[in-house]
Each structure stands twice: as structure tokens, then as C-alpha cells.
Write a structure and sequence with these properties.
12 helices, globular, single chain
């Protein structure tokens, strides 16, 4: 009887949390993460830097759905294709289409120095150069094109011209490639002389929260402090559908992960300041 009551209690909280998420999809609020420093809303271009195809669906879909549903342009830079380039690229493109991302805004690399696997260290300096090239190729969040050639004309009202999103130093699962991507973005932030760049990292949670599903939205909102923002996934079924496009990875434990992982339902982003967490 005691275990039954616990099960019922958890089920009720789970359903209440899911209802909260679905309610958000009908009455979406504008997250402060999407505002500029003056508090006004502008359409933004955002670069999401990931390690592997399927990272976008497994970990970052709440952020992607929040941004795309409000008309912001999300670019994906995927550093590796896991050694089966054409297959994984096609899967990434199909998943991106489900997530409402134009294919021309999705780049998947098959670089010999960035191959998937534990024990394969990715060079942070090379990765930083690739991020830099991508930033300037697409002018990420370039609100005023004149700033691309003459950044010193910017005023405080037009601060935070570029946004980059990636993993934090643990990389959700502790995967070395996730952590290397974080280090590469951090290196780029340290090396760049441009003040008009924002970098944000996806906060890793402990294993209990990681598999608490939609229940984690309450803990996420409660834990937000300082330069942090909590983004709820307004389209969790879209995230599941996107992950299902990665057929080479769509095995039973990943199906369970997408169903029960808190990263399907909420993302907590934390700002990186000059390569250091605030």
C-alpha cells in the first residue's frame, strides 16, 4: 500500500508538471533570455554548437523550440558525424526539419580531428577557429549590418549582438566530446576581442533530476539565479519525433531517455563570461 501511494503521488506530480508544460504552449511567455539589454524583443540569430547528430534532439530541443516558435533563427554547428557521415548528416537534417530549422542553417562536419569516441581529445584551439569562422560566415545575431564592419559604433542599447549556446563543462552525460565542445567555445570567448558576443551553456543536473522528466521544471525554476534562464519545451512531442529521425541511434534505451529525461522538457542555460561561469 505504501509503495502504491508513492507511485500515485509521483504520477500525479508528473501529470501536473506535464500539464504545466502544455499550458505554456497555449500561453507562451517571452523569456528574458530572448530580450536585449534594453528589455525589448528582437529577432535573433543563435548558433548552437553540438558534438554529435542527435545532441540537438536529446538535450537542446526545449531551447530550439522556444527560439524557433518565436521567429528567431537557430543555426546548428555539429562537430562530428560519428564516422558514418552521410547517414548521420541525413538524420540530422531530418530531425532539424521536424524542429523547424531550415537545412541551410544546419552544418555537420566530418573533420578528421573531430571523430566521435571516448579517449579522443578534440583540440580546443582548432574548434574555436571553426566556431569563429561560422560566426563571421553567418553574422550571428547581426542586428545592424554596419556593426559587422565597425563594431565600435555599437551603443549599450545594441549590446549582445551574437548568441552561442553549447554544453557546460560536464556535458550532461560526461561525454568527453561534449566537454571538448564546451572548451572550444570557451576558448573562442577568451580569444575574441569582440565584446558583442554572448555564450550560454546548458547546465548539467544530477542523475535524479536528469531522469525526473517534466517534474524537473519546478526544480529548474527554483534553482535559477544570477545570469541563468529556464526554457520550457512547449512542444515535447516534437522533440520525440525529432529524435526518432536518428534511426541509427533509435534503440530502446534512447527511446526511454527521450521519454523520461528532464532535458526533453526543460533547459537551464547559464551565461559564460569571458570563458568563466558567472
Amino acid at each position: 500500500m505504501e509503495w502504491f501511494l508513492i507511485f500515485v503521488s509521483v504520477a500525479v506530480v508528473w501529470l501536473a508538471s506535464l500539464c504545466k508544460i502544455l499550458h505554456s504552449s497555449f500561453y507562451p511567455n517571452q523569456s528574458p533570455f530572448l530580450n536585449n539589454n534594453a528589455g525589448s524583443i528582437q529577432k535573433k540569430n543563435v548558433l548552437l554548437v553540438i558534438a554529435h547528430p542527435d545532441d540537438e534532439s536529446m538535450f537542446f530541443s526545449p531551447t530550439i523550440n522556444q527560439l524557433t516558435s518565436r521567429g528567431h533563427n537557430v543555426h546548428i554547428l555539429c562537430m562530428s558525424t560519428d564516422g558514418i557521415g552521410d547517414v548521420r548528416k541525413e538524420e540530422l537534417y531530418r530531425a532539424s526539419a521536424i524542429l523547424k530549422l531550415p537545412l541551410q542553417q544546419v552544418t555537420a562536419l566530418d573533420h578528421p580531428d573531430f571523430q566521435d569516441g571516448f579517449g579522443k581529445v578534440w583540440n580546443s584551439n582548432k574548434l574555436a577557429k571553426i566556431v569563429e569562422k561560422k560566426i563571421f560566415a553567418h553574422a550571428i545575431d547581426m542586428v545592424y549590418q554596419s556593426l559587422f564592419h565597425n563594431l565600435q559604433v555599437a551603443t549599450p542599447h545594441h549590446q549582445s549582438i551574437w548568441k552561442i549556446i553549447t554544453f557546460d563543462n560536464y556535458g550532461v552525460s560526461g561525454h568527453c566530446n561534449h566537454r571538448d565542445v564546451h572548451q572550444g567555445v570557451r576558448r573562442f570567448i577568451l580569444d575574441t576581442s569582440k565584446r558583442y558576443i554572448e555564450a550560454w551553456e546548458l547546465v548539467s543536473s544530477n542523475i535524479v533530476r536528469k531522469y525526473s522528466g517534466p517534474i524537473d521544471i519546478w526544480l529548474s525554476f527554483w534553482s535559477v539565479k544570477g545570469e541563468m534562464h529556464c526554457l520550457v519545451n512547449e512542444h515535447p512531442l516534437r522533440s520525440y519525433a525529432a529524435m526518432s529521425q536518428h534511426l541509427s541511434q533509435w534503440v530502446w534505451f534512447r527511446k526511454l531517455f527521450v521519454s523520461f529525461s528532464s532535458y526533453t522538457y526543460v533547459n537551464t542555460l547559464r551565461k559564460i563570461n569571458n570563458g568563466q561561469v558567472l
